[in-house]
Amino acid sequence: MKINPLYLIPVAIMAVCCNSNEPTIQPKEITWHGWNRYQIPETDSLANYGYRLISNTAYFLGPKGTVMQISNGMNCQNCHLEGGTIPWGNNYSAVVATYPKYRDRSGSIESIAKRVNDCFERSLNGKPIDSTGREMKAIIAYLHWLGDEIPKGKKPLGSGIMDIPFINRAADPLNGKKVYTSQCQSCHSVDGAGQKNPEGYGYTYPPLWGPNSYNIGAGLFRLSRLAGYVKNNMPFQKTSYSNSQLSDEEAWDVAAYINSQPRPSKELGKDWPIVSKKPADYPFGPYTDTFTEKQHKYGPFEPIKNSLSRSK
Ligand code: HEC
Ligand code: HEC
Q1: Would you identify the CATH topology of the domain 37-147?
Q2: pLDDT on residue 23
Q3: What is the C-alpha to C-alpha distance for residues 222 and 150, in angstroms, rounded to an integer?
Q4: Could you tell me if the CB of 233 is within 6 A of ligand 1?
Q5: What is the pLDDT of residues 62-92, one digit of tens each?
Q6: H or E segment at 180?
Q7: CATH architecture assigned to 163-312
Q8: Could you say which ligand is closest to the alpha carbon of residue 238?
Q9: What spacing in Å lies between the alpha carbon of 109 and ligand 1's midpoint?
Q10: 234 CA distance to ligand 2 centroid (A)?
Q11: Residue 123: CB within 6 Å of ligand 1?
């Protein structure tokens, strides 16, 4: 049995409410932090394999993969940090608790397998894997090991990527280039191609654009997702949600620079079948509002958001 004391012990904070002198005690939710992978029982070979697939995807499933060659050389863990266990590091805490669920992007009820294959086809610019095969079963077993204790329907605090505040201007790729040069380039390279690992089957520093990066259908191609991920996680190892290095403006601008660079395409005609459900930062029309694709890509997003909420 794995116990995560931080998540289980409720913390009470004192808050003095309104005009009353009576302090009221309100429980404050704690940010979720995942189990340590060393806690996966050795006997659970499926969850162990799932962890290895997520942390070292390229070895098994990359262009030189030992099992299949169906993805671009990146690892799931490049974006879902430390096996998807880090608060606001795109963690997997909500997956088992909230899937299957309806998603506006596909306009359908999605299983965990469908969602995992979405990331294979978009974030890893690859092909979907057999949803009944050993690899998918292993990935799902790992997600269960991580998320089984979360009550059904609950989205723990810190799951996924944080919605950081909008800035009141369009994000600026030129300013972002300056941020990139000083804070990112040493690892991700001047041409955004990252750096291959010594064995050559994958990456020590993953690519941010170019042919081996995520494609235009990936979540990170939406500026709010990329800015929110970067703000709380990059530069790598110096940064966490409680110790971010970039201002909000720098995060939005560097995201604009990265997403203005070339990357693989994808046919997206079936996405967002209900056009009015497209998020403010979805960069491809048609839209139900009158804002340009450019504004939907770089902002300012506040006016779009306001017009979306007015029309609902
Ligand atoms: C290039 C970055 C990237 C890579 C690589 C990547 N993902 Fe994702 N993934 C995302 C983003 C972005 C989201 C959406 C997060 C959000 O909007 O909060 C996401 C969401 C998910 C979700 C849904 C999470 C939830 O709480 O609803 C699952 C499951 C998932 N990814 C699994 C995988 C698996 C398995 C792999 C490897 C095969 C993978 N991802 C690789 C970026 C990536
Ligand atoms: C010290 C080296 C280093 C620096 C500096 C750095 N990164 Fe990263 N970055 C990494 C590593 C390593 C990963 C993958 C993490 C993993 O697999 O555990 C990563 C992953 C990413 C990812 C998700 C994966 C992908 O390739 O799409 C993005 C986006 C990203 N970094 C953006 C940035 C930005 C923007 C900056 C500058 C603000 C930056 N990084 C600075 C090392 C670095």
Answers
A1: Cytochrome Bc1 Complex; Chain D, domain 2 (1.10.760)
A2: 60
A3: 28
A4: no
A5: 999 999 999 999 999 999 999 999 999 999 9
A6: helix 173-183
A7: Orthogonal Bundle (1.10)
A8: 2
A9: 17
A10: 6
A11: yes
